[in-house]
Write a structure and sequence with these properties.
single chain; alpha+beta; eight-stranded mixed β-sheet; four-stranded antiparallel β-sheet; 14 strands; globular
Length: 231
């Protein structure tokens, strides 16, 4: 079966300076469902809100879709240390977005990403970016006693989970809550009997996007084939 896709105009790349970015956009209505979204993710797509896209740049292949093979995942020594260090935190799962998330998101963007495209934060942008009608969502909350300190927004696919976005309280930056949340997403993917955790795009030359290849084993999409990488 063949599908039609839209192609965006070129615009300045969000990740690499002096480069232009272009997107391939899923426009077929029959793909706007859990099964269609799951298939598109296996083809290297991601979502922002309900728009599903994939980089489609003319002279650049820097963005590489990456997914952890959760069935075989083995934490590294540093990851085990982090889990032990943060073992006093309480992790909860919510299947609905909660009202107290937005204030945490605001703190995160204002303190951590004040130089990014999402600054200054506003509620409409927050909802448009993170909300999803395509599939079920899981919100992985991390608590320090009665204080919410992190939320990992996660989509549930047919055979995988997809890490959409994580935001955390700036006062807990030393707790490496981004890494901690990925480790918990892997655990929950295992709990849900999923094969993979999608982490988005690994971009080796971008400091903010080159951390995703530290969870072994993982698969990376090259030339439309998933290639396994072991430690």
């Amino acid at each position: 079966m063949s599908y039609q896709f839209g192609v965006s105009k070129e615009f300045p790349c969000s990740y690499l300076p002096d480069r232009q970015e272009r997107l391939l956009i899923a426009v077929e209505k029959q793909l706007n469902c859990a099964e269609g979204y799951s298939w598109l993710m296996s083809q290297g797509f991601r979502r922002s809100g309900d728009q599903i896209y994939r980089p489609h740049c003319v002279n650049c292949q820097a963005c590489q879709s990456i997914r952890v093979v959760v069935t075989d995942f083995m934490p590294s020594k540093s990851q085990k240390r982090l889990l032990k260090k943060n073992q006093h935190f309480i992790v909860k799962i919510s299947h609905q977005q909660q009202d107290n998330y937005y204030s945490l998101y605001q703190k995160y963007i204002n303190a951590i990403h004040y130089d990014g495209a999402m600054y200054p934060p506003n509620y409409e942008q927050y909802q448009t970016f993170l909300s999803c009608q395509l599939t079920k969502q899981v919100f992985i909350e991390t608590w320090d006693e009665d204080k919410l300190i992190s939320v990992a927004v996660t989509d549930e696919l047919v055979d995988a989970l997809s890490a959409v976005y994580t935001f955390y309280h700036p006062d807990y930056k030393k707790s490496a809550l981004g890494v901690f949340s990925i480790l918990k997403q892997i655990s929950i993917a295992q709990l849900f009997n999923k094969k993979y955790l999608y982490l988005g795009y690994q971009i080796d030359d971008c400091k903010k996007m080159n951390y995703k290849n530290r969870y072994f084993p993982y698969q990376i999409l090259k030339d439309n084939l998933w290639k396994l990488v072991n430690k």
